[in-house]
Write a structure and sequence with these properties.
It comes from Pseudomonas benzenivorans. This protein is α/β, with parallel strands linked by helices. About 45% of the residues lie in helices and about 15% in strands. The longest helix is centred in the first third of the chain and has 31 residues.
């Protein structure tokens, strides 16, 4: 198993005041970076030769590298430490990556470690001035909740793309177990070759749904990402038609995440 881990530059956490400043700088850097990608980087990439698929891949690789630099910035400035287990099994053709969603930066870390990934993102981000440029250049899928969205997501998997989905649809409420919507499982049984669960834990909790960015913990937080064993969606289709298969797969995933997250408590 490949293990990427950065536990920090020293045994001691950086002072609270510095971590607050570094967190603010991180968010400022993220916003400015998104605008620069939209205004400068992607227009230049669009001038390079290639069809729409090649241009999309270039955009996704650029975003992945930018997100990796962002995670490194947060680590180097003392905001976080991180640990990624099983990273070598991410990014395979037709792979659907299903993850829980405890913090604001979950998708950032996942994309940072997957070179060419599609992703289902919130509809509101399509109009965000910092994010809409990267989202549209990468061809990410809007989480509109429509049947068209399910078809588009399934088609991306059938076409050999890696797709990241957060079945909760929003960040987990602190202190509560994740609640999965069945849409992710419905996409999986329609188009995924394999389903790979990724369990994310953040200790102490921060950047949750209930906390503003400036409500930082008393020490720098540790971000842990664990890649689980592959699941074959065909095994659930063998148990009945697609609606039944998606329900059973959703229940299986839900129980898997509850069990795995309980081990982190």
């Amino acid at each position: 198993m490949d293990l990427v881990t950065h536990h920090g530059l020293s045994r001691h956490s950086a002072p609270y005041g510095w971590r607050l400043i570094a967190t603010a700088l991180s968010f400022a850097l993220f916003g400015i970076g998104g605008v620069l990608l939209r205004a400068l980087v992607f227009p230049l990439l669009a001038l390079l030769p290639g069809d729409s698929t090649i241009h999309r891949t270039r955009a996704r690789v650029t975003i992945s590298r930018a997100f990796r630099l962002f995670v490194q910035f947060m680590f180097r400035t003392g905001v976080l430490t991180y640990e990624v287990e099983g990273v070598e099994r991410l990014g395979r053709p037709g792979q659907m990556v299903i993850a829980n969603h405890p913090s604001l930066i979950d998708v950032v870390v996942l994309i940072a470690f997957i070179r060419d990934a599609n992703c289902v993102v919130k509809q509101s981000l399509w109009d965000n001035p910092c994010m809409r440029g990267p989202i549209r250049a990468a061809g990410y899928i809007s989480n509109s909740g429509s049947l068209d969205m399910l078809d588009e997501a399934a088609a991306s998997l059938q076409g050999g793309q890696t797709l990241i989905v957060f079945p909760e649809g929003t960040r987990t409420t602190p202190g509560q177990a994740p609640q999965f919507h069945r849409g992710a499982a419905a996409i999986a049984v329609r188009g995924a070759r394999i389903v790979t669960p990724v369990v994310i834990s953040v200790t102490p909790t921060t950047l949750t749904k209930a906390e503003p960015w400036y409500s930082i913990p008393s020490r720098r937080f540790h971000f842990r990402l664990r890649v689980g064993q592959d699941i074959d969606p065909q095994a659930f289709l063998a148990q009945g038609p697609a609606p039944i298969a998606s329900r059973k797969l959703n229940e299986h995933l839900h129980q898997h995440f509850i069990k795995e997250l309980a081990q982190d408590e």
